[in-house]
Amino acid sequence: MPELEPIYNSTVTCPVCDKQIKVTKVRSKFVKLIKQDEDFCPYYEQTNPIFYEAWICGNCGYAAHSTVFNDATGNDQKAVLDKLKGKWNKRDFSGERDIAKALEAFKIVLYNLQIRSGSFSEFAKICLRIAWLYRYKGEWVNEYKFLSFSLDYYKKAFTGEHLTNGKLDEYTCMYIIGELARRIGNNEEALQWFGKLISASIRPDAKGKVPPLILENAHNLIYDIKEAIKNEKKNDQESGNKKTS
Ligand SMILES: [Zn+2]
């Protein structure tokens, strides 16, 4: 019996150009999560399914996150076909992806969101995945840049979009805003958002809606930030004392 490969191709119909295209998926038995960072960045034992989340139609250039690939509207179709006409090099995006290929694919999705005027939450999600890919590569400057973009988009989504439990709920949104602020060094802003989340979680209408993990993480991160601020002050005082002595 041939050995089972971690990835396989599946045929889907592009909702923009109606052509049949191949997308690559990861077999669930090969998806073994080892750990997750506080901003949900996952680490896997073998194949990383994040690499395969950006689906691209090699024929017309339409691209989206796999979970919303089929949601293209008539306006999306028009925008993609009008704006990519004559510019798109037809090519195949199926097959194995490394970090570099995954980054290329997510950047095509990001460009697509720009020409389609995508939702803030979708922009936020894609920028966060690009930040994670740079984290895997150890490229902090690029990671920081995309964490900052993602933070801005999550804040716009929080105030400007109707957040539902289906995709992004308001509690997870508050948590991720706090965590992204913390990661880029905005500790005060992070404390505000974690505090906001904790206050919201005790409202009667929040009962049963707040994922316990994010609440626990928020409490732990508040503690960590406060400790870090305390240590910073201590270090500042010590270096101040040294200078004056
Ligand atoms: Zn297409």
Q: In a nutshell, what does this entry contain?
A:
With about 240 residues, the chain is mainly alpha-helical. It is built from seven helices and six strands; from the N terminus they run ββββββααααααα.
- pLDDT under 50 segments (min length 5)? none
What's the overall geometry? globular
Bound ligands, named by name, code or SMILES: zinc ion
Alpha-carbon distance between the termini?
A: 77 Å
Order of neighbouring strands in the sheet with most strands: 1-2
**Largest β-sheet summary:** 2 strands, antiparallel
- Series of secondary-structure elements, N-terminal to C-terminal: EEEEEEHHHHHHH
SS-derived structural category: mainly alpha
Question: How many structural domains in the coordinates?
Answer: 2
Average pLDDT across residues?
94
Oligomeric form: single chain
- Helix content bin: 40-55%
Helices, by number, come to 7
Q: What share of the residues does DSSP label as strand, in percent?
A: 5-15%
Total number of β-strand segments?
A: 6
Radius of gyration: 21 Å
Write the layout of secondary structure elements.
Elements: E1 7-13, E2 20-26, E3 33-36, E4 42-44, E5 54-56, E6 63-65, H1 74-84, H2 99-116, H3 120-137, H4 140-160, H5 170-183, H6 187-201, H7 212-244
Antiparallel strand pairs: 1-2, 3-4, 5-6
Helix pairs in contact: 2-3, 3-4, 4-5, 5-6, 5-7, 6-7
This protein binds zinc ion (ZN).
